[in-house]
Structure formats: C-alpha cells, structure tokens
Design a protein that fits this description.
six-stranded mixed sheet, single chain, seven-stranded mixed sheet
C-alpha cells in the first residue's frame, strides 16, 4: 500500500476542483514513510482519495498530482502513455511539428498532467528539464519515452538551480541520449534557427528557446510589412526575425547578451535577412532612453522582458518597472504605430499589467488603444483550474 498524504479541513476545495498542487500548509499528516520521489496518495479529511503524485518533502509544494484516478499506478507505462498523448494531440490539433515549424513544446509540466517535467523539441533533438525529485528518479523511462514520441535522435538535459536546490538533486547539463552537438536547429514560421545546445557555450536560456511566444511572433509578423521594427529584450531576435521575414524594411534587436546577439546575427545571415536586421548590445532601459533622446521612431515596438515578479510580494516593484519600460517603449512608437508589450510574470494578472501599460503610455502623453490581449501558444497548455499556468500576457496596442 502506498503512503498517504492527508489534507487539513478547509484545504480540499482547490485540489478537488483540479488544481494540481498540494501546499505544505494544507497537509495534516502522512501515513507511511515515503522517501523523496516516492508515489503517494492524497486524501481528504474523510479519507477519500483525491489523486496521486510524487513526494517532495523539502518543497513548499510537497505533492503535485499526476492523476485523479485512485486505481492508477504512476509507473513506466503511465509516464510513457502521458508523453505519447502529449505528442499525439499536438499533431492532431496544432499541426506540430510541421514543415514550417519544427520547434515546439512537447510536454508542459502541469498543463500536460506531468508536473515537474518540461520537454521542448528542436527538429531532431529535444531538451528535458526535471523540476521534481519524482520525475528525476524516473529519468531513464522519461528520456526513452521522449525519444520515441518525438522521433528525435538526441536528447539533452537542462538544469534549474532553483529546482535542484528545492528538490535535492543535481544535474550535469548536456547530452543524455544520442550524440551531442553544439547547436539545436529548427524552423519557425519559415525562419531557420540555430541556438546553443544545453551544456555548450552560450547555452542556458531555460530549455533553449521561447516557444510560448510563437503565435505572438506571428501576430507581429502580420503587422510588419514595410515597417520599421524594434525588438527589445530580443534574445536571438525571434520577434525581429519574424518581422523581417514578413517584409519589415528595417529591424533593430536589442539585448544585453553578447552570445544571444551573435547567434541572432548568424541566424539573420543564414536566412538572407542580415541587410534588414541590426543587433545592438546594451541594457534595454538605457537603450530605450538613448533612442528616445535621438528622436528615433518605429512603426512597431516589441518589448518582452524577463520575469520581473517571482512572487506576489514582488508585484508592486514589478509594476513600477513595467510602467517605466512601457513608458520608454511608448516614446519610440510613431503616432498611430503599434506597441507589443509582454509580461511572463505569473503573479501579475492581465488587468494589473494593462494598468502598467496604460500608465506608462500616459507618462509619455500617449493613449494605448488595445487591439488584443494574447497569451501563450497552444503547445504550452494550462489546466482550467490552474491559473499559475497562464503566466504569459501579450498586449498589442495602437498608440495615439
């Protein structure tokens, strides 16, 4: 009989409704002596089973549920079936992979019923990140399942210092299946990309690329024909390259990472776009100010900063930063042009973020006319009862 985790009265409703996380303060006691990574059953105060997950005793979230079925065992067959299903519905519903887009997210942790596991596919390669000790203990089964389901020949493991410290395991980033190579290659929207592989020089951007912005990059491309475009916090220039491919007359990409900018320059050259895409190194906040003082104006300005609020305690500070960033960006948008501004901070709601956008525009005596409020692409799905999974906000606004 597997160990049981018993919930306190008053903490059952979110879990019953479908939220996959069991927080430490919700636990009254455990029956049995589960080791880190062991399968456990979660039960309510009346003894009714709510689901099963893996035990992470040192985490603020000791259990993340993988199934609601009390009769299901979280064995190799279960994990293989979940990964196969993730690949199947992405192909059936989203057409991923396709000849024009061979990079995508295969497994999105809680959104695919596999909390603690993230998998991205890059053509013939995949990168895997283990976020819990339970998933890490089952690495061999998972890596084999990913190789088969995605049809890849190489699999890399990616580390996360935060996850490793919290869960008590270590990761040596690099190749774990097949023969390694220094780059990951894929296509998106017809643009051929090559980014640093995990464990190689220049690697380290999460699982390798930000596939969650794919559909937002396509939206920017639809606005870009004949336009002058600024891509701020560009990484390798995903938004800017999409715009150039769609016919932008000039693109400027700004980032603080020299290796990302060098990779972007190579991608632009490989795709015949180097004559229209320029890469500029610097702190985006400083560069926005410099461009504004120089009187530069753009038809489309994209601003996609890293996470500015890691918890609810940081939201107020993040709001001030979002306001300043959006003010700096708004200053550079020509009259009637478009601001595309993003937040990947899950603690910042869409309404809160929109307020920062409005205030930032107002600081520059501009009015932001919202055209669309978008989220992540379909291949990082989220469960309806799991708002933490809907972290990405992308506001497209016309500035008057």
């Amino acid at each position: 009989m597997i160990p049981s985790v018993h919930l306190r009265p008053g903490f059952v409703q979110p879990v019953w409704a479908g939220h996959p996380w069991v927080f430490a303060q919700a636990i009254a006691r455990t029956t049995g002596t589960p080791a880190p990574g062991d399968e456990v059953s979660v039960v309510d105060p009346e003894g009714k089973t709510l689901g099963r997950g893996f035990w992470s005793p040192e985490s603020a979230i000791p259990v993340r549920l993988l199934t609601r079925d009390a009769g299901v065992t979280l064995d190799a067959a279960f994990l293989q079936a979940r990964i196969d299903e993730a690949a199947r519905w992405r192909k059936a519903l989203l057409g991923l992979p396709s000849p024009s887009s061979t990079g995508y997210r295969l497994v999105n942790a809680d959104g695919d019923g596999l909390p603690g596991l993230t998998v991205d596919v890059f053509g013939d390669a995949a990168s895997v990140q283990f976020g819990t000790i339970g998933m890490k203990r089952r690495a061999d089964v998972i890596l084999d399942a990913v190789t088969r389901a995605a049809g890849v020949t190489r699999v890399y493991e990616v580390g996360s210092e935060r996850h490793q410290q919290r869960e008590g395991f270590t990761v040596a980033e690099g190749i774990v299946r097949g023969e390694g190579a220094p780059t990951l290659s894929f296509t998106e929207g017809g643009v051929r990309f090559s980014v640093a592989a995990p464990g190689s020089a220049g690697g380290g951007q999460k699982t390798g690329y930000y596939f969650d912005q794919r559909e937002n990059r396509a939206a920017v491309a639809s606005l870009a024909s004949g336009a002058r475009v600024l891509d701020a916090f560009s990484y390798v220039g995903g938004f800017g390259l999409a715009a150039a491919k769609a016919g932008a007359r000039e693109v400027v990409c700004v980032d603080s990472s020299a290796s990302a900018l060098a990779a972007g320059q190579r991608i632009a050259e490989d795709n015949g776009l180097a004559d229209r895409v320029a890469y500029k190194k610097g702190d985006v906040r400083d560069v926005l100010g410099e461009l504004g003082r120089a009187g530069e104006r753009f038809d489309v300005v994209v601003i996609d900063p890293p996470k500015l609020a890691h918890s609810a305690r940081e939201v107020e500070k993040a709001m001030a930063n979002y306001r300043r960033l959006n003010a700096g960006a708004a200053q550079l948008v020509r009259d009637g042009g478009v601001l595309v501004t993003c937040s990947c901070s899950g603690s910042v709601t869409a309404d809160t973020f929109l307020r920062a956008v409005a205030l930032g525009a107002r600081d520059m005596n501009r009015a932001a006319q919202v055209i669309a409020v978008r989220g992540a692409a379909g291949d990082p799905p989220s469960m309806a009862a799991f708002p933490e999974g809907r972290y990405l906000k992308c506001v497209i606004a016309r500035l008057a």
